[in-house]
């Protein structure tokens, strides 16, 4: 019985995050699948406009309040997702009762704030999980969410409310809270608030390829949303074929990540973090060269790489932003949620005024600049590293570092950082090599200093060279 409860407790975080992923998958291309719940695109626009604004405000407020708290993150996530579910169903009640748009906007505000709180709290709580396990788990959640959307699309004609039901069920699933072992048990809510800005900057600077690539995908999705909500003309009309295509692409992308996690040695997995965003954006740029893809097959084909790119970069983004032992993860997730909601809202509102041609040109230009930057930055980094490259270390020094790590009972990550410190590497260099923020590296360095009883890098090097 105890083993069963422990297994369920470990599975619940993935069920909860899977629910959030399911909501995103259902709504990522355009909101036409939930029109039956709201009655019209105009009502959808009122609801989600208010929801996006509320998500921005909620994200910033939670980021500013990222400090020590006695309330568990998972508990707040549960409360937020339940509020979002009630608000989503409440929108249907508002329509049936014939209430004003103000009531619908109020439901949207509650939905946006609740959903943002759930994303922020579960995102920060994931830091308690092993990175590889977390990535495999969220990839499996993506597979399940994509299959569920395909099923909902298949049933849409016979049962128009099926997609809306899936969204509501996903929000309820995100309210699942572990009873014992929980990601909320990590030190996510205990770091000083003055470190939060550094953690936020470090998280985004270390993962800028994924962040910018995901923003480009969000730009395309938001353009489709803008076209649907306003009824304006768009080359790649976001119809049912697009929904099928993005769901299929999301399924393929999630499956590819599952295979990569299982088949790739984790020490080599940083190549996936580097190449995946590049390949995703390159595939979008490549298919854009074929011009406006019209017709059922064309719209379906165009949407597959978009769904695949969203899946891969969103899942990598979730795990990369959730790694580390810094409590300012709540601030990081708050800023990320507010930034993406602001970006999506801006594109949806601006698109009808600018038009399809200008927005398509903007998207293509952005992708070209992104590909150039991704190709150029590693070259510049390599030149900088070459200028600072020290002489090769002897095998004896590596053995001394391992011996010292065992004696001081350093963690695996601390032992790895100790090896870099013994080579004279700086914190920014180590952060780039290990794909963590500079602030996280500095935290580990302070832990190493404390365990070894030293106060500076010079003293640390003396200790390393004195180990017998």
Automatic annotation (TrEMBL):
Domain of life: Bacteria
Gene Ontology molecular function terms on file: DNA binding
KW Transmembrane (keyword) present: yes
Keywords: DNA-binding, Membrane, Transcription, Transcription regulation, Transmembrane, Transmembrane helix
Transmembrane segments: 12-34, 46-64, 76-96, 102-121, 133-152, 158-177, 198-222, 242-259, 271-291, 297-318, 330-351, 357-380
Keyword presence, Membrane: yes
Residue span, HTH luxR-type domain: 403-468
PANTHER family named in the record: DNA-BINDING TRANSCRIPTIONAL ACTIVATOR DEVR_DOSR (PTHR44688:SF16)
Protein name in the entry: Helix-turn-helix transcriptional regulator
Organism: Gordonibacter massiliensis
């Amino acid at each position: 019985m105890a083993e069963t409860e422990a297994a369920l407790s470990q599975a619940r975080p993935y069920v909860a995050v899977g629910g959030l992923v399911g909501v995103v998958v259902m709504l990522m291309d355009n909101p036409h699948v939930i029109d039956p719940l709201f009655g019209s695109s105009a009502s959808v626009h009122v609801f989600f406009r208010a929801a996006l604004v509320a998500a921005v405000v909620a994200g910033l407020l939670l980021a500013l309040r990222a400090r020590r708290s006695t309330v568990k993150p998972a508990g707040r996530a549960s409360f937020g997702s339940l509020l979002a579910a009630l608000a989503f169903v409440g929108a249907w009640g508002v329509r049936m009762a014939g209430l004003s748009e103000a009531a619908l906007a109020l439901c949207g505000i509650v939905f946006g704030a609740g959903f943002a709180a759930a994303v922020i709290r579960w995102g920060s709580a994931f830091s308690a999980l092993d990175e590889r396990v977390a990535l495999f788990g969220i990839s499996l959640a993506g597979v399940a969410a994509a299959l569920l959307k395909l099923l909902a699309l298949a049933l849409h004609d016979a049962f128009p409310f099926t997609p809306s039901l899936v969204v509501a069920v996903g929000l309820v699933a995100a309210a699942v809270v572990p009873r014992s072992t929980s990601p909320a048990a990590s030190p996510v809510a205990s770091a000083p608030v003055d470190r939060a800005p550094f953690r936020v900057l470090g998280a985004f600077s270390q993962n800028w390829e994924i962040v910018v690539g995901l923003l480009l995908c969000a730009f395309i999705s938001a353009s489709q949303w803008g076209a649907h909500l306003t009824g304006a003309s768009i080359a790649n009309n976001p119809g049912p074929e697009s929904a099928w295509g993005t769901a299929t692409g999301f399924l393929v992308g999630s499956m590819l990540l599952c295979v990569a996690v299982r088949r790739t040695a984790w020490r080599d997995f940083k190549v996936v973090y580097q190449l995946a965003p590049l390949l995703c954006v390159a595939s979008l740029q490549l298919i854009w060269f074929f011009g406006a893809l019209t017709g059922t097959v064309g719209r379906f084909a165009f949407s597959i790489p978009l769904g695949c790119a969203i899946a891969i970069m969103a899942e990598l983004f979730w795990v990369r932003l959730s790694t580390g032992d810094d409590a300012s993860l709540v601030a990081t997730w708050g800023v990320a949620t507010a930034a993406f909601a602001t970006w999506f809202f801006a594109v949806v509102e601006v698109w009808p005024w600018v038009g399809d041609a200008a927005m398509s040109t903007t998207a293509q230009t952005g992708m070209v600049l992104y590909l150039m930057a991704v190709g150029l930055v590693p070259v510049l980094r390599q030149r900088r590293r070459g200028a600072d490259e020290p002489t090769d270390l002897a095998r004896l020094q590596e053995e001394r570092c391992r011996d010292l790590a065992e004696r001081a009972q350093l963690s695996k990550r601390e032992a790895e950082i100790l090896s870099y410190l013994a080579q004279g590497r700086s914190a920014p260099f180590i952060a780039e090599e290990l794909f963590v923020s500079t602030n996280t590296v500095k935290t580990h360095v302070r832990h190493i200093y404390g365990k070894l009883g030293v106060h500076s890098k010079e003293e640390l090097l003396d200790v390393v060279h004195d180990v017998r």
